[in-house]
């Protein structure tokens, strides 16, 4: 699944139809498919890393209702991309993460598989 997600993210980012608003908020998702970059951002403790941690936290919550998201989370955890144990999501963060998870669901359902 991780390979499919990685290729789907690449296809999504290179699709002219996804320019503009549809790409807004894709940075944390892009970071999830680049383990080396993820761990570099973690070491630097960047804002992008924090947004990605929020996404992982929200993904853990959403995975209870969606087995595909649970499988994705397992793949991410195997790459040491772990959701934080304690994090409080603001309303703004929760809204952003909902949109990101919606996109992730499309990506793992092969919507952008070419």
Automatic annotation (TrEMBL):
It comes from Anoxynatronum buryatiense. This is Uncharacterized protein. The lineage of its organism: Bacteria, Bacillati, Bacillota, Clostridia, Eubacteriales.
């Amino acid at each position: 699944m991780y390979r499919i997600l990685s290729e789907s993210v690449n296809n999504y980012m290179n699709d002219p139809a996804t320019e503009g608003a549809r790409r807004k908020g894709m940075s944390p998702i892009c970071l999830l498919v680049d383990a080396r970059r993820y761990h570099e951002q973690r070491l630097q403790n960047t804002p992008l890393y924090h947004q990605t941690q929020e996404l992982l936290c929200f993904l853990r919550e959403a995975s209870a209702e969606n087995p595909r998201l649970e499988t994705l989370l397992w793949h991410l955890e195997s790459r040491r991309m772990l959701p934080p144990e304690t994090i409080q999501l603001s309303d703004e963060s929760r809204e952003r993460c909902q949109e990101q998870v919606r996109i992730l669901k499309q990506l793992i359902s092969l919507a952008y598989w070419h």
